[in-house]
Amino acid sequence: MVEFIQTVLFTLNRLDGRSLVDVLIVAGIVYWLLSLIRGTTAEALVRGLFLALGLGSIVGNALNLTMLNWLLRNSIPAMLVAVPILFQPEIRRALEQVGRAGGLLPRAATVSRPERVVEIIASACRRLSECRWGALMVLERDTALGEFAKTGVEIDGLLSVEHLLSVFYPNSPLHDGAAIIRGERVAAAGCVLPLAESMATGHTLGTRHRAAVGITERTDAISIVVSEETGQISIANNGRMVRNLDESKLRKVLSILNRPPTYRGFPWIGGSYARPARPKIDRRPA
Hints:
Elements: H1 2-13, H2 17-37, H3 41-63, H4 66-86, H5 88-101, H6 114-131, E1 135-139, H7 146-149, E2 153-158, H8 161-167, E3 178-182, E4 185-191, H9 207-218, E5 222-226, E6 233-237, E7 240-245, H10 247-257, E8 262-264, E9 272-274
Helix pairs in contact: 3-4, 6-8, 6-10
């Protein structure tokens, strides 16, 4: 333990400005990676892993346990192989965020009027809620949802209230899946989405709600759900869901989340689109 303290003090005495910047950069990267796994099943796994390694290291150094110290030192190469396997979803999400932030290849922008899209979706959700028809709509943003659209039936029809009502009519063959909305058009319907990995969803949500959260965990899309049991309207974004919305609240939230992105920088040097800040939503039950 004395040698450990002396090593720490020696390291601190050698710190200079460049080393401090290096430490801050690494700390920022670690914080960003930890923020990606917050609220997922990987959070408990990382907590248990750090706790086991920390306690093992403290006990091994304090009691000078040769075998335990040897085991901890030789477990690091094995972790280099195990970490990509255990945290594959989180690593994929991190790379997707990096790709969204500074893509060098330009992507064709979808010309649309956000106000019209918001108005149609809010009106359709109100009527779906009144009829107690279950619905799941996904608004495509920067991340393309082509791979999920291929799991359903490609429509490429003009977005309208009547169109959405016909898709989610209970006897319709497409009503059980999700409708993907791209700009002012319904790209596909009856689509299969990944279920949520977040621990916060619990067991109270059905498959439709878990799929709504799941697609927002993997992409930057916005999903809107209408419960066929209660008629309750919910919206999910960035892996989080807000429930018990009415038409006016849904219109207000969508008008903020569905704003066109503001471009920063230049495309040839990795410019990025900045999304509006997450709105403050009253989560108290109505």
